[in-house]
Design goal:
Elements lengths: L2 E8 L5 E8 L2 E9 L7 E8 L9 E8 L3 E6 L4 E6 L7 E13 L3
Antiparallel strand pairs: 1-2, 1-4, 2-3, 3-8, 4-7, 5-6, 5-8, 6-7
Length: 108
Amino acid sequence: MPEVEGFIQTTQEGTHFLATFVIKDAEYNFSGRISSNTQQWKCKPAFLEYETLAQLTSTRPFDGKIGRRKVELKISNGPKIVGYVLLPLEEGSSVSGNGMWNTGARMQ
């Protein structure tokens, strides 16, 4: 199962996130809304595990946990995103939601 490094960050309100990874000179972004509000957080590095690039398309449901120190999002069709929070959060929570994959040329 390939694994690539990138990052995840939330909006200031902690309700939306963006995860970005570069695979074969293309940028893959998974962005979505989190089911429950969290503090603002960022994971750099974060790691994406996947089997095929075909999994990194379309809108996909996900679930996972945003812990005090670790974030883990499991996407319904198999990929998993894991990262360690740069600054520990006050509390953790289980989350779910939908995210959408977008792919584009890598900006140099």
